[in-house]
Amino acid sequence: MDLQAFLITFREALEALLIVGIITSYLKRVNRPEFTKYVWLGAGLAIIASLGLALVFQVILDGFASMGSQNYMKVGIMIISGILLTQMVFWMAAQAKDMSGKVQGKFDQFITTGNIIGMVIHAFLVVVREGVETVFFFAAITGGDIGQAIQSWGSLAGIALAAAVSFFFFRGTMRVQLKTFFKVTGAFIVLIAAGLIVQAVSILQDMNIIGSVVPHLYDLTWLMPEHPIDQEHYIRDTGHAPLISGDVGVFLKALFGYASSPSLEEFLIYWGYYVALYLLLRGRGEHAEKAQQAKSQTQMKEA
């Protein structure tokens, strides 16, 4: 859970800090530093709103648990979180190409009209979006205990690293391109999303809401059980220890949805998710490339 919290917090905090950093840097470059305080005001209000949302959401989750509906709650949160994480990958694939230009264009309008409220609201929405997603993802990876994720070393380390990366990025000391940076972190986010979705399917099958054509497609318990308890049972039944400890298995299960004995449906959904995501991203990239080529040809004709 700590590593999941680290990756999620790092990704969300970095995204927010980069956009806020682009805004404040642009305001200084156009000699309008007096507007910077309004950007930070919006960001500060967004952090307060996100913490308030976490508190309200936790009360709602506790209410579901008291009614004995925590499994339904977990499944719903896992599926929605998987969808949101996937959407984040698509959003960053589109935004990372010209994030700076789009943000600066928006603030040009605010500066021209002197729209201070617009600056505050824009900064608020940028940061609160990441805060809301973080709260939802924390609920998914902890099974409903948001406070546990917020107080973990993973979330604190994620925020600290995001702040450090943002600082060095704007100081010009980082050589890694922003697009490449988001591709790497996005790959880990995709693994987490696939794990959440397949774990939701597993819970639904355990609750007999979804059946299974092949309950156990294969069994890798001999290699790496998905929990220390499974390891104990394997040693008891065979007299041999698995090659890799169940402590590693439970870690990979929590992080990436590893299953030592998955059903056919889990297997198909897990790998089908990657295939579908690859095809969609590839198709979107080809469409964007064709659109750019058409735009370039039009500009050349006009010239």
UniProtKB/TrEMBL annotation:
Family of this protein: Belongs to the oxidase-dependent Fe transporter (OFeT) (TC 9.A.10.1) family.
PANTHER family linked: IRON TRANSPORTER FTH1, PLASMA MEMBRANE IRON PERMEASE
Range of residues in the leader sequence: none
Compartments, record wording: Membrane
Annotated protein name in UniProt: Iron permease
GO cellular component: high-affinity iron permease complex
GO molecular function, one term: ferrous iron transmembrane transporter activity
Source organism of this protein record: Aneurinibacillus aneurinilyticus (Bacillus aneurinolyticus)
Membrane topology of the entry: Multi-pass membrane protein
Alphabetical UniProt keywords: Membrane, Transmembrane, Transmembrane helix
Membrane-spanning residues: 6-27, 39-60, 72-94, 115-141, 153-170, 182-204, 267-283
InterPro entries found in the cross-reference section: FTR1/Fip1/EfeU
Stretches assigned to coiled coil: none
Main location (coarse class): membrane
